[in-house]
Amino acid sequence: MRAEALFALRHCARRLWLSVRRSTAAPLAWQPESRAQQASVLAAARRRYDPDRTGLVIGEGGASDADRCQALAATRRALLDSDRTDTSVIFGAVMAADGIEVQIDCLVADRRSALGRWRLIAVKASAAPRRRYLDELALQARIARLAGMDLSGVSLAHLNARWVRPVDDDESGLLLESDITTAVAGREPRIERWMAAARDALGSDTTPLPTAGRHCDAPRRCEFRHDCPAVAPDVEFPVAWLPAVQRRSLREHLADPAVRDLRDVPDALLDADQRRVKTHTLAATRHHDRDGARRLLDTHPEPACFIDFEAIAAAVPPWPGMRPFQPVPFQFSCHRVDAGGRVVETAFLALGRDDPSRPFALALIAACGDAATIYVYDQTFERARIRELAERFADLHEALSRIEAMLVDLHPIVKAHFYDPSQHGRWSLKAVLAAIAPDLAHTALDGVRSGIDVQHAWLEAVDDATTASRRREIESQLLAYCRLDSFGLLRIRQALRGDPPSATRHRRLWQDLGIAMETAVTLIETLRAALGAENILVGAQIGDRHRGDWLMQAPADVEPIALALPRDTAGVSAVLRACNAARVAVVPQGGLTGLTGGAIPVHGAVLLSLERLRAIEEVDPIAGTITVQAGVALQSVQEAADALDMLFPLDIGGRGSCQIGGNLSTNAGGNRVLRYGMARELVLGIEAVLADGTVVSSMNKMLKNNAGYDLKQLFIGSEGTLGVITRAVLRLFPKPITTSTALCAFDDFEQVYAFLRAARSHLGGTLSAFELMWAAFYSRAVADRTPPLPTGHIAYVLVESMGTDPTRDGEHFSALIERAIHDEVVVDAVVAQSIRETRQLWAVRDMSGELVQALAPVGNYDVSIPTARIQAFALELDARLKARWPGAEAICFGHLADSNLHLFAKVDERPFPEHELDEIVFGTVRDWQGSISAEHGIGLLKKNYLDYSRSAEEIALMRRLRAALDPNAILNPGKVF
Length: 977
Hints:
Layout: H1 3-6, H2 13-21, H3 35-49, E1 56-57, H4 68-85, E2 89-97, E3 100-109, E4 117-124, H5 132-146, E5 150-159, E6 175-179, H6 181-203, H7 248-254, H8 272-283, E7 287-288, H9 290-297, E8 304-312, E9 328-337, E10 343-349, H10 357-368, E11 373-376, H11 380-392, H12 397-405, E12 407-409, H13 410-417, E13 418-419, H14 429-436, H15 451-461, H16 468-497, H17 507-513, H18 517-531, E14 536-537, E15 562-564, H19 569-582, E16 586-589, E17 606-609, E18 616-620, E19 625-629, H20 634-642, E20 646-647, H21 660-665, H22 673-676, E21 683-689, E22 695-698, H23 712-715, E23 724-731, E24 733-734, E25 738-746, H24 749-763, E26 767-774, H25 775-781, E27 795-803, H26 809-822, E28 828-831, H27 835-845, H28 848-854, E29 859-864, H29 870-884, E30 889-895, E31 900-906, H30 914-927, H31 952-965
Helix pairs in contact: 2-6, 5-6, 9-13, 9-16, 11-12, 14-16, 15-16, 18-19, 24-26, 29-30
């Protein structure tokens, strides 16, 4: 049990028991610090306590995907070897005792006392020490001592709120350290009582009785509250919807446990805002003083700007002159409306290492131009940032002061003139916008949906470890979030005045398609009636994200009719039923991480996004299954399995964005096919919706089931052309507790094949990866980093083994490498000694996403060739390319043991000869009896070459199946064939 689970006991024994014994949900996150902020403070602590970088880093500050077993073993070795190796500081040590596991930020050897004594230091991303840290440190100290550690003291290191980063970046004084040994010792008896109580609670086969209180909802709502016998059923109109409860008489009345519903509160105790909330909530009516709002808004002249700011408040300020957590604006969005009603959008976003303050100020001045009114929402934040900028930059003071003088806060205007019961007593921008313009709901955004998300996104974007493709994804999400807020202000003013919002009428689109206006309007209204207006987006509401995938965008003249966002299988069925009746095409979309255009919009189609089907319905550790909806991200499935110490082995680079429905629809492969197979081998049951809306539910959980046709295989790999997958039962496996990884170099390919045979023979079923990189790929992948092995060899292999024997697996793996070197099969090798080194080795192989962008334009191919012939194929392909373009190059890598070859075809010719490249590459694949698609599917990009890998009879049978299941040909038309 991890330490976090124990602290659930402070709230409720039932919560502890359920979180450990039965639930897939994570235990209570009782530390609110951002992981990214915490990581930056830990990095500062490493610079302070280990300036020479001689210390040992074991864990990653509580990273959820750390291999805890390896970290425990590494900690034990480090402490045993510390006297011999002079290790003086250890970061991220993991220790366990009495069934509880803790991770310690920093251990510093106390050289002033006897050898083997250590000082335990907790490092916190906080500008002040907090009492709750004492419990955490008392537990860590207790477990460390039980594990045999001799502690000389316990300290707390936190940020100095008065520290200002100097120009020379000297971080002296950034962290304040307090000796809290005595205070922690005083808490240890309580920790011992908690540990004893936890053992008693977890030792019972029956669920402990719950206790109700504030902890049921704070700091976050208990994940088990919905069926808790101690919590009264939710009331229809909670008193929590009353805003700003300050009057003593009202507070005393609400303190009565019997007062839970708004109807229990007399009007005499309420102020005007509270009475408005109560009146309109109970009557289910909207308050809108349109005339009053219009008169007030008309006093503010045009041109008008609508502006939203975003700022980073970094725990460790990156720029001189800044204090910890000082807000620094790095982004704004501005929608400017001139007197004629024309709208012009301007955006600024800085994600670099330089201080964005001055570029931000200059861009803001330019964006506001000659505006007479600048609307913001809850002006405190924007006004404070503008004043700070004006004080910092004397030459911009006048222009910025003018902008500040023109600020008009929409928040009090909205509060005085508008209220909808859906706001639940809140007048935040998100609450009001959702009520006024549900098509602009923040829940429809991808990734960044709140101010906290903004902080996390910025910190991730500027991290050196973040890939260029991920940085572009973050940039897009930040722009969309800020743009929604500023455009939302414009829509709120329109609604307050009673003006009709501007909207695209789709007249040209419908006429181009030959669809009668009445038919299109009826279809959209039918979809809105079935799913709710907020779940059907049209025109400009359909963002760029849904108009393409990772590698391609739909042409500019391709315009979908609507984007449907159902929340369950019934919603998917309703969309397909309506579209089938109207003979309108449907393009299913998942995480949009595909590489062959399988989810690219079709002109005049309805886009059917599965992204809101996000429920993990059940994890059954006995059956070894997990039941999920199609929109669940692959990484979420992996984490849910990990929470029960199990493994869902499907793993690809886009794990955080791709969705299970898309993984199954394309029969995804990835990094572990060698051991666990493709996606189709990981599925027991499927629910899918046919083109006419019929729901076919075959949610089998049994490994053996031969009752008729295996219907799930119809939909796996069919890329949404036979039906839309909505739910699935997936297989889970025992979680490997050891991982051994090595990078090996070879000087000829006979050595590579010999090593593959040796690895299969020696490692057997534990062999989990055998990733081959040709020299051209490897040299580029390590160009901007210290290479783990020297460049210049013919080939490199990343080999990995996952096992369940901590005492023997590492030795067994090392024996394979040592024997291969002794037999001169492997020329050179490096074996990972820590989780961090394992990630560093994999980072080389995972550079493929970066390289495809860096080499652009480039042909990107995913093919299969019989394993023994892959090198001969690569040589012939390279020769064919050079025969056509002398300077051409085939840059190869792939899953050798899976027969899967990835390659980039680099040709220096403009315009880029994409079609001719395809003919040469796929023609060579055909000649070698390979497959034009190993794991990415056919989609749009490869459909013209399907007959290079499939016979005419096979393709004819595919067409017959498609015609039988989708006679009106509405499902993903134009894809596959």
